[in-house]
Amino acid sequence: MGRIGTQPQLEDVRAETLAQAADELFFAMRRARSVAADRDGGLSLPQIELLKPLMTEPELPVGKLAASADVSIPTATRMLQQLETKGVVVRRRSPEDERRVLITLTEDGAERMTRLRARLRKRQANSFEAFTPEERVQLISLMQRLTRLVAESD
Known about the structure:
Structural class: mainly alpha
Radius of gyration: 19 Å
Order of helices and strands: HHEHHEEHH
Mean pLDDT: 86
Number of strands: 3
Helix content: 55-70%
């Protein structure tokens, strides 16, 4: 029990066994994302999460990025200062409101995020090939359900 790749028996499936399996999956996914992030531009997982909305919106205020990444505005500001130093983003004051700071991905930042996302999706696709199409349908349903349950328990 609790080892990657071992198949629990029906009588072994209890809350602790499920929690251990969930923890193992979480940490394996986190390691995989960290490795991909290091390879594709040296972005940390929190930085990637902060920048994700900029992949669909060309420019956003710090507050929206902070809320999306579930971090405080001062934390987001520090992260964005570091990212600006690395040439990943550009920060500028809003012409309508000097107190508001707007963030844009640089061309290099957008390329890093695109490479990172492509590499991540490729690794995921390779992992999912281990499942039959029927198992994938079931896996999607179970992951979505688990996500809702975890989100509701906050």
